[in-house]
Amino acid sequence: xxxxxxxxxxxxxxxxxxxxxxxxxxxxxxxxxxxxxxxxxxxxxxxxxxxxxxxxxxxxxxxxxxxxxxxxxxxxxxxxxxxxxxxxxxxxxxxxxxxxxxxxxxxxxxxxxxxxxxxxxxxxxxxxxxxxxxxxxxxxxxxxxxxxxxxxxxxxxxxxxxxxxxxxxxxxxxxxxxxxxxxxxxxxxxxxxxxxxxxxxxxxxxxxxxxxxxxxxxxxxxxxxxxxxxxxxxxxxxxxxxxxxxxxxxxxxxxxxxxxxxxxxxxxxxxxxxxxxxxxxxxxxxxxxxxxxxxxxxxxxxxxxxxxxxxxxxxxxxxxxxxxxxxxxxxxxxxxxxxxxxxxxxxxxxxxxxxxxxxxxxxxxxxxxxxxxxxxx
Length: 377
Ligand SMILES: Cc1cc2nc3c(=O)[nH]c(=O)nc-3n(C[C@H](O)[C@H](O)[C@H](O)COP(=O)(O)OP(=O)(O)OC[C@H]3O[C@@H](n4cnc5c(N)ncnc54)[C@H](O)[C@@H]3O)c2cc1C
Hints:
This protein has 3 domains: 7-47 and 92-155 and 255-300, FAD/NAD(P)-binding domain, CATH 3.50.50; 159-253, D-Amino Acid Oxidase, Chain A, domain 2 (2-Layer Sandwich), CATH 3.30.9.10; 310-376, no CATH class. It contains 9 helices and 17 strands. The protein has helices at residues 16-25, 94-105, 221-236, 284-300, 310-325, 327-340, 343-350, 356-364, 369-376; strands spanning 7-12, 36-40, 49-54, 64-68, 70-74, 79-83, 88-93, 112-116, 119-124, 130-134, 138-146, 159-171, 180-185, 195-203, 206-215, 241-254, 267-268. Strands 1, 2, 8, 9, 10, 11 and 17 form a 7-stranded mixed β-sheet that branches. Strands 6-5-13-14-15-12-16 form a 7-stranded mixed β-sheet, with helices on both faces. The termini are far apart. It binds flavin-adenine dinucleotide (FAD). Residues 12-18, 39-42, 44, 48-52, 118-119, 147-148, 249, 251, 270-271, 276, 281-284 line the site of flavin-adenine dinucleotide. Flavin-adenine dinucleotide binds next to α1, β2, β3 and β16.
């Protein structure tokens, strides 16, 4: 098989974390002198909306289409709407993200090539070089980043899917408060199930409404549709709406000991590096911050291995175990969490930026002791 001459950087996978890495590498003057290959096996699925919360101006602000400063949480017994200062909750459409990277950003740089091929394995060939073995060709580089998830991840002991289906709808009447996004509304939840409604209102008569469930088994299509119809009719008293777009997806949520480096010393990025929070499914902002750090590490030639602290891994394990063992109880624990802890503090906790004292205050108010005991059994 043919082998090409060595390049400076190979990025395996051309998805979200790879684009964020390129974006951050490009912020340094030396970037234009580097020869970079991105190896991606398929065309991107662009029907995604990435949401995340951030402080201040975002490096990808030009791609943000909507932002909210208030978040609503709802359940059968309790509903709250709160300002989320110092955060802003923002969304980027997948089609805008990939359009920007593939048609504007990458074409500016002749030093980046996108190769359509499938990575089969990565081998260390000497102390300085690695070989990326693909279906059609092999490639050599001194630095390999990889966003390809290891097969073992799917065999993790606590494994759940966050799965969702949603509609982008337009209504005749003005029924949405466009200033407030709904992060979770359990008011529509099925018996003994952890499912909720998520709403991004784009205007007073346009919104993305999604039903999301955390479970080990995926749902039949008809269940999502029933849940969506029921919610729209009963909560907004609305029967007349036009569905413009359908969004569907599933995110694996597992307790897995992610490492910073792969088996052949490649630097892992994105989901492969554990940047998607196991208990929430959010990963975009964590991947952006990680890409900033990796770019700096690359140019300073010091790779600092960084992964979630043991404490946060334990909290993720606990939350996943509660949802898996007792979804009904998990709904009640989430309601208590939002009742007793201000939403900005929950957002800070989910980004793993709280300190031990703040975490003790959050958990003290929740009935989680029986689940902690079960983890240590
Ligand atoms: C439907 C959906 C919605 C999400 N929404 C949000 C959200 O709102 N907010 C948030 O913070 N996070 C969200 N996430 C989580 C996370 O941000 C995304 O999964 C994100 O795309 C992860 O980036 P990644 O680079 O790790 O993976 P991907 O974007 O999936 O990129 C990996 C790439 O590698 C390619 N690849 C895989 N194997 C090979 C191979 N052998 N050879 C070559 N190429 C290969 C794939 O084709 C893919 O393009 C969402 C995830 C999903 C699935």
